[in-house]
Recover the amino acids of this structure.
């Protein structure tokens, strides 16, 4: 057994011990513009070049999902698979050097939050014209509870959990976050609040990503009657208010240490 196969072997052992299984994972796949709207039962998997090593992440998640689905089809495992599309809210992300590793690269919203807390320009990778959707964590938890409470409607299904109404270009997200943070913190935005960096400079070699991914909500609407409620502006205001109250003073202390020494 190789080290690379061990995580799959471990998950397989867990699945075999379960009578029912709720599997949540973050979606990361598809490069073809014809499939930007992702359907659980129809959209194909289209990955980037093998030279772009970040696609290994997407391949691994897809393999795990197929294992769970196969156990259901062949051995009667009761399962529900949740494909999460950027669940955002308080306590959802770490701030590097404060409650997470200094060298880590968190998700885009936490990267931007970290810049805002430190009074730094927000870094846009390769111009960041990619498009994403964001759903508030309270909305996402609401529908996961619906799945748990209604197993007859959820078992054997794959559900997209996201908010297609909150679609935004990442550059526009940076501009919105700059405005919202200024409002919740009372601090004026920087004269130059956004800068462009290359993906090689920010991530290193082997980076690639989808240009756009939007969750199709047909199945989750039909099975559970669920629709997300929180707008992008409101979820940003709630999240950045929490992050400012929780992290602003700690970030100031971290910034002040090198100056003091």
């Amino acid at each position: 057994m190789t080290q690379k196969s061990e995580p799959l072997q471990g998950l397989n052992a867990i699945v075999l011990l379960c009578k029912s299984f709720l599997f949540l994972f973050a979606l990361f796949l598809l490069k073809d513009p014809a499939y930007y709207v992702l359907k659980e039962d129809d959209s194909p998997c289209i990955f980037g070049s093998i030279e772009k090593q970040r696609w290994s992440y997407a391949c691994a998640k897809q393999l795990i999902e197929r294992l769970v689905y196969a156990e259901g089809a062949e051995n009667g495992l009761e399962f529900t698979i949740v494909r999460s599309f950027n669940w955002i809210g308080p306590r959802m992300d770490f701030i590097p050097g404060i409650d997470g590793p200094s060298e880590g690269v968190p998700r885009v919203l936490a990267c931007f939050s970290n810049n805002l807390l430190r009074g730094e320009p927000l870094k846009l990778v390769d111009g960041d014209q990619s498009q994403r959707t964001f759903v508030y964590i309270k909305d996402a938890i609401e529908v996961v509870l619906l799945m748990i409470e209604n197993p007859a409607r959820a078992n054997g299904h794959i559900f997209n959990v996201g908010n297609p109404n909150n679609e935004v270009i990442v550059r526009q997200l940076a501009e919105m976050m700059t405005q919202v943070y200024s409002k919740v913190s009372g601090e004026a935005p920087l004269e130059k609040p956004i800068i462009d960096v290359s993906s090689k400079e920010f991530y290193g070699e082997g980076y690639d990503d989808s240009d756009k991914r939007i969750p199709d909500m047909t199945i989750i609407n039909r099975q559970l009657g669920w629709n997300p409620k929180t707008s992008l502006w409101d979820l940003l205001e709630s999240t950045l208010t929490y992050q400012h109250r929780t992290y602003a003073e700690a970030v100031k202390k971290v910034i002040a240490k090198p100056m003091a020494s």
About this structure: The longest strand covers residues 20-26. DSSP finds nine helices and eleven strands in the chain. Residues 232-260 form the longest helix (29 residues).
